[in-house]
Amino acid sequence: MGVHIKLIRATGLPQRDESHNNPISQWKNFYRPPWVFLFHMIQVFCFIWIYLTIINPTVTTLYQIRDMLITHFLPDREDKIPFSSIDILQNSIEDCLDNIEKIYKDSFQNFYFSDSLHPVIFNIYWLNGSVTQSANIELTQSFFHHILSFDLTSKFMLMIEEGEVIG
User: Fold this and answer.
1) What distances in angstroms separate CA 60 from CA 56, 85, 160, 166, 167, one per listed residue?
2) Under 8 Å between Cβ of 102 and 145
3) Most buried of 21, 73, 93, 126, CB within 10 angstroms?
4) Which UniProt keywords are listed (predicted)?
5) Which residues does residue 72 pair with via DSSP β-bridges, in sequence order?
């Protein structure tokens, strides 16, 4: 067995390449800006803006108009109960025509009829399958022997002048 003698040398720390190991000097290569988060935040703000400026005022106005039309046009009587006489039916039609006139004249909304000469059209559905449109209707006993049904139609436009866009 022999004796091995090793000389002790003072060696310094190994030299480091600062450009590869220091993350602070290399932040440009590894930094990813939070673009996805920024785009999501922009989308959220756009949705909130669209809701507050377009959707909410539109829905509020539509529900006001719906409530107004329901109070004017839906009768207080039960839907399933038939009219017992021609006079009651004629009075109901006249009430409906009066309510259309009230909406046109007394409403806070700006209603305009599509056809100003004949704002109300009566559609008469005959038993033979034909349909007749007229501006007025006369209810008689013999009239009901030949028809299947009839309805009354009124086409109107609503102009809302609140806000930046009129229409």
Assistant:
1) 6, 40, 12, 16, 15
2) no
3) 93
4) Membrane, Transmembrane, Transmembrane helix
5) none
What b/e sequence results for 60-95 when a residue is b if at least 16 CB atoms lie within 10 Å of its CB, and e otherwise? eeeeebeeeeeebeeeeeeeeeeeeeeeeeeeebee
- CA atoms within 13 Å, Cβ hemisphere of 54: 7
Give residues with Cβ within 8 angstroms of 148, minimum separation 6: 125, 126, 127
Q: Render pLDDT for 58-68 as a digit per residue (tens, 0 to 9).
A: 898 888 888 88
The residue among 67, 122, 116 whose CA lies nearest residue 90 is 122
Q: Which of 120, 111, 109, 119 is nearest to 63 (CA)?
A: 109
Report residue 55 as tokens: 């959707």
